[in-house]
Automatic annotation (TrEMBL):
SUPFAM superfamilies: P-loop containing nucleoside triphosphate hydrolases
Protein name as catalogued: CpaF family protein
Homology family: Belongs to the GSP E family.
InterPro entries noted in UniProt: P-loop_NTPase, T2SS/T4SS_dom, T4SS_GSP_E_ATPase
Start and end residues of each Bacterial type II secretion system protein E domain: 83-359
Residue ranges, annotated region (Disordered): 426-450
Length: 450
């Protein structure tokens, strides 16, 4: 006699048995919805949930499925999400610990939590099920996904970002990438508490933003560039006007005077396209005190550099690069792609004149995000952009064998003219070893030395 396989309630939603019962029940619900006609389309989610609960309970009894009350409830919840929500994605989207959702095909779903990627037990019925849910997300956004438009990048209503690639570009099923963002952006104090940087770097960044230094945040994918940029905006005075320019809107600045601009993709023939470069040029006519570009990745680099060089001090942006020096090389490369016609020396002088600090941020193997370097751009020398690294991230193992973070100060004084007054105070207090108040009146960066 073959033993009966029993599923724990926690395992039931991931079982083949659950998926088969769900499929049969879903088909029954679709036939009932067809009978209701247009009336069903006017129901609220609460009404749909009640309808599903009644129909599922009746169908389970009729078909004699051996389900307990808890499992019937799990089935009803899943089908409600299928009919009125986003199916298997709904719980993941509502989970605040989830940062990224990556779907390789209907059976392979991966989720990133605290920077660590792991496979999720959630599955779809088939690839068509994945497409049905994705198209439900895209429908209110007015975006198409089909063979003539097999790649879509869209901003979700909650501020998240959705990227989808389907056949014929994707060879083995739809590829879905969802980047979630916090409803409340991380504050500088939050990053300090998460050990993204230490108190000295916090004080330096506060001072740099307060004194309108131009800052470029550099790092890899999912390293925390946008979160750091959001946090730096907390240091901007409330009487300043900020214009943000992004390809896909991700920034969430906690500031009373923010103008948000987002690029627009063109139609099939390219008409109607509005690029980041167009928006940066237009933003200069909007009386900005600061311009914040979500990410520089193309020809807009020249307009961003010119804005920083022509009175829009205190501007900030991000760039994909592995180190501060690589960041500067990448700026030169992007300028070349933009058709820059001047000399190499002239371009480097523009970059050196535009930027004050490059902040390198990265995601460590354990998933933690850390500021890896704070580097100041000091000018030009021998046709090379000169820099000095003020802080460098290091790890060490304590007596208990635990890996600890530390930031090594190289004992260098910032040279930016925007910090001239504070630099004099810093040098004086280093000589006397007396703590000096930071801009908000508290003792901080200026009185300490690593």
């Amino acid at each position: 006699m073959t033993p009966t396989i029993e599923f724990r309630s926690d395992d039931f939603p991931q079982s083949d048995r659950f998926r088969e019962i769900k499929r049969q029940t879903y088909e029954h619900l679709l036939s009932r919805i067809e009978e209701l006609g247009a009336e069903f389309g006017r129901w609220t989610r609460e009404a749909i949930s009640e309808f599903v609960s009644i129909e599922v309970a009746s169908f389970v009894r009729t078909q004699r499925f051996a389900l307990n009350e808890h499992e019937v409830g799990q089935l009803s919840t899943a089908l409600t999400q299928e009919l009125a929500g986003l199916g298997p994605l709904e719980d993941l989207l509502e989970d605040p610990s989830v940062e990224d959702i990556l779907i390789n095909d209907y059976q392979h779903v991966f989720v990133s939590r605290q920077g660590v990627l792991a496979r999720e037990s959630t599955q779809f019925s088939d690839n068509q099920h994945v497409l049905r849910i994705v198209r439900r997300i895209l429908a209110p956004l007015g975006r198409r996904l089909d063979e003539s438009n097999p790649m879509v990048d869209a901003r979700l209503p909650d501020g998240g970002r959705l990227n989808v690639v389907i056949e014929p570009l994707s060879l083995d099923g739809p590829k879905v990438s969802i980047r979630k963002f916090r409803k409340e952006p991380l504050r500088p104090e939050d990053l300090l508490g998460l050990a993204t940087y230490n108190q000295e770097i916090h004080d330096l960044l506060k001072l740099a933003v307060h004194n309108r230094c131009n800052i470029l945040v550099s790092g890899g994918t999912s390293s925390g560039k946008t979160s750091l940029l959001n946090a730096l905006a907390f240091f901007i005075r409330e009487d300043e006007r900020i214009v943000t320019v992004e390809d896909t809107a991700e920034l969430s600045l906690n500031h009373p005077h923010v103008v948000r601009l987002e690029a627009r993709q063109g139609g099939y023939d390219g008409n109607g396209m509005v690029s980041i470069r167009d928006l940066i040029r237009n933003s200069l006519r909007m009386r900005p005190d600061r311009i914040i570009v979500g990410e520089v990745r193309g020809s807009e680099v020249m307009d961003m550099l010119q804005a920083m060089n022509t009175g829009h001090e205190g501007s900030m942006t991000t760039l994909h690069a592995n180190s501060p020096r690589e960041c500067l090389y990448r700026l030169e490369m992007l300028a070349g792609f933009a058709g820059y016609q001047g000399s190499e020396e002239s371009l480097r002088r523009q970059i050196a004149g535009a930027l004050d600090f490059v902040i390198q941020i990265g995601r460590l193997p354990n998933g933690r995000r850390r500021v890896l370097s704070v580097t100041e751009i000091t000018g030009m020398g021998d046709n090379v952009i000169t820099t000095q690294e003020l802080y460098r991230h290091e790890t060490h193992t304590d007596a208990d064998g635990q890996e600890q973070d530390r930031w090594k100060s190289l004992g260098i004084v910032p040279q930016s003219p925007k910090l001239a007054g504070w630099r004099a105070v810093m040098q004086e207090n280093r000589a006397s070893s007396a703590p000096t108040p930071s801009p908000d009146g508290r003792s901080g960066f200026w009185g300490r030395r690593s």
